[in-house]
Design brief:
alpha+beta; f41 fragment of flagellin, N-terminal domain; 3-stranded antiparallel β-sheet; Flagellin_C; Flagellar hook-associated protein FlgL; Flagell_FlgL; 5-stranded antiparallel β-sheet; single chain; Flagellin
């Protein structure tokens, strides 16, 4: 059997070989120029798919880093705001202690009340502070609205109790700034555990100096009421009216019952009462407002003076608890900032690992590629010479 190859076939075969060599050279040259050896998915489908997954993972880490930067800015803004509120509350408590002195005149107390109202306005302004980008710090998840508004001395809240969570690393999210309801509205009063107060209808000059839990095992959280059956006699009853203790009263005497102790001064009148209960929550704006109102109220009788002193004494305790509340929130903010630093370290380690893997998969080994290019150029040159030799062949050369 004789195999015949036409001149046209030889030309076509040589041309195809030359074109393939040119494509190989061009591909290698493109690798050297771009530094990327994965030019087409057809060259390495598995490698291309893996590199795309790695690119996506790196882009996700980059977004997490941007999220962390924004969250850090907002948390540091919250920390600054809480520090400012704490400073104002410290000043308010100093004023309350100053106002508790019998040596002050009515004018002096009115001046203190005016400063307290100014402090209240400053705290309200801080509560509506934003992060510099138009988003409020203390509006919960509704961070595009002004959360607090003062209407006739009563502060209302337009935010919500929600808290955004920001993803700062794979499978790791952190809470955004605290909602204003938690920061400014639900603040424990008294000593944070119990709060004592004088009944509103008291007519004597009795003043509650202190109230505290002395035996947590004996106190079950119930409210207790000290009632004066005479100016020098009292009884302690629970919420159901059961008498828990009774005795004779003298000024500066501590009254104890069911694990709770109260210290009173002055001369209560028959029918006066004092209540100690689990410390309720109240917004700081009301605490400051009530203290200012108590200092502005005219005092013309011993009972009115006792009413004012009871209000000031209660406010001193309430402001102390509010200070502790702000400190606790600052502590929580600091914990989240520390967690952000840890997340940043984890992201950096992840980025390095992914980048190394991606580099091994996609980056060109320039020494190998240059050697390969030289070999391909040699092969293409040989193909070109072969093509020229084939083109010159003819039967007439045999004549």
């Amino acid at each position: 059997m004789t195999l015949r190859i036409s001149t046209a076939g030889l030309h076509a075969q040589g041309l195809n070989a030359l074109l393939q060599r040119q494509q190989q050279v061009a591909r290698t040259q493109q690798e050297l120029v771009s530094g990327n050896k994965l030019q087409r998915a057809a060259d390495d489908p598995g490698g291309m798919a893996q590199s795309q997954r790695l690119d996506h993972a790196l882009a996700t880490l980059d977004q997490h880093g941007k999220n962390a930067g924004l969250l850090e800015h907002r948390l540091r803004s919250q920390e600054s705001a809480l520090t400012d509120v704490g400073s104002h509350l410290t000043r308010a408590r100093e004023l309350a202690v100053q106002a508790n002195s019998a040596a002050l005149s009515a004018t002096d107390r009115q001046s203190i009340a005016a400063e307290l109202r100014s402090i209240r306005a400053e705290v309200l302004s801080i509560a509506n502070r934003d992060d510099g980008a138009g988003r409020r710090l203390f509006a919960g998840t509704r961070d595009g609205v002004a959360p607090f508004a003062d209407t006739g001395g009563t502060v209302s809240y337009a935010g919500d109790d929600g808290q955004n969570r920001i993803e700062v690393a794979p499978d790791h999210s952190l809470a955004d700034t605290d909602p204003g309801s938690e920061v400014f509205l639900r603040v424990r009063t008294g000593d944070g555990v119990v709060r004592g107060s004088a009944a509103g209808g008291n007519t004597g000059s009795g003043v509650l100096q202190a109230s505290a839990v002395t035996d947590h095992a004996a106190w079950n959280g119930q409210a207790l009421r000290v009632e004066f059956t005479a100016s020098n006699a009292y009884r302690v009853v629970d919420a159901g009216g059961a008498v828990l203790a009774s005795g004779a009263y003298a000024a500066n005497t501590s009254i104890s019952a069911a694990g709770v102790q109260l210290t009173l001064t002055g001369a209560p009148a028959t029918g006066d009462a004092f209540v100690v209960e689990r410390a309720p929550t109240r917004d700081v704006f009301a605490t400051l407002q009530n203290l200012a109102d108590a200092l502005d109220a005219p005092v013309g009788s011993p009972s009115e003076r006792a009413r004012r002193d009871n209000a000031v004494g209660a406010a001193i305790s309430d402001l102390g608890s509010a200070q502790n509340h702000m400190l606790a929130l600052r502590g929580g903010t600091g914990t989240r900032l520390a967690a952000l630093d840890s997340a940043g370290d984890a992201r950096s380690a992840g980025e390095v690992s992914l980048a190394q893997t991606l580099s091994q998969l996609r980056d060109v080994d320039y020494a190998e590629a240059a050697s390969r290019l030289a070999l391909q150029l040699t092969a293409m040159e040989a193909a070109q010479k072969t093509m020229l030799r084939v083109q010159t062949l003819s039967l007439f050369d045999q004549l």
